[in-house]
Amino acid sequence: MSDPVVIDARGHKCPVPSLRLRKAMEGARAGEQWTLLATDPMARIDVPFLMQELGGQVIEIEESDGVLQITVESGDAQTG
Fold first, then answer.
1. Nearest in space to 34 (alpha carbons), one of 12, 53, 51
2. What is the DSSP string of 38-63?
3. Beta partners for residue 37, in sequence order
């Protein structure tokens, strides 16, 4: 499997990080992965809800120097 696609939403407030992730996931195949970079702490809450809505899953959440790195994986084919 290839490395996750990185979506950089640092410096943006809710809901922008989740919206950028949703946009990036449009048309995804099952098993594709993305890593969202975000400085808004709400992303830690918003992204798991987004994955539940889209049928995907959160693989990992890491935080370093105030930057969240949230890796997610798509479930079934995503629609916009």
1. 51
2. E--TTHHHHHHHHHHHHT-EEEEEEE
3. 8, 69
- The candidate with the shortest Cα–Cα distance to 37, out of 71, 14, 2, is 71
13: number of CA atoms within 13 Å, CB side?
Answer: 0
Q: Could you tell me which of 61, 75, 80, 78 has the C-alpha nearest to residue 31?
A: 75
- pTM score: 0.91
pLDDT tens per residue across span 66-80: 999 999 999 875 445
Average confidence (pLDDT) over 33-50: 98
Share of the chain above pLDDT 70, in %: 94
